[in-house]
Amino acid sequence: MFERITEDEERGQVGIGTLIVFIAMVLVAAIAAGVLINTAGFLQEQSEATGEESTQQVTDRVQVIGTVGEDTDTNGTSDLNTFNFTVTKSPGSSEIELTDATVQIIHPGGSSTTALTQDDIHGVGDNSGTALTSDNDRLKIQLGTAVLEEGEDATFHFTTASGATTTVTVRAPDSFDDGDTVFL
């Protein structure tokens, strides 16, 4: 059944061949393990970045705490043509720069998307600038790009640089006078 090898030369050659095959297998396994470890590290970094971006899209949004509509043109018609939104950052948000935000407005006259500028943003109280940095910061966003007549409504979508969106729907009262300011 088993053949007995009596020559010493043949015995050594079989051992060296086995050793070479073993070393080759160890090298291949080491290279494969290195590739797997590098791939796992890359995937971990990518998943952490995706997680951070997803968190920002959920948390880094503005919170509208007050809305006022004004009839600033005195042309004899009752329509709201300027909207003031008092905003703060949502709980858990990091700093939000409002000049990097956009507003999509959908109203009876159509829709539009506009980027906020420094002219649209005004400080409230001691706050100034265009960024919401602390939980106590309040800024006013003033928009004059929609016109609402009595009983009409409009939807405003505020989207921050991280992609987080806050939606606010306002409805003009059923009656108000030319030149009025109304809380919405």
TrEMBL record:
Swiss-Prot/TrEMBL keywords: Archaeal flagellum, Cell projection, Cilium, Flagellum, Membrane, Transmembrane, Transmembrane helix
Highest taxon in the source lineage: Archaea
Signal peptide range: none
GO biological process: archaeal or bacterial-type flagellum-dependent cell motility
Principal subcellular localization: other
One Pfam entry name: Flagellin_arch-type
Secreted keyword on record: no
A cellular component annotation (GO) from this entry: archaeal-type flagellum
Residues spanning the membrane: 12-37
Subcellular location: Archaeal flagellum
GO molecular function, one term: structural molecule activity
InterPro entries with a match to the protein in the record: Flagellin/pilin_N_arc, Flagellin_arc-type
Family statement: Belongs to the archaeal flagellin family.
Role of this protein: Flagellin is the subunit protein which polymerizes to form the filaments of archaeal flagella.
Protein name (Swiss-Prot/TrEMBL): Flagellin
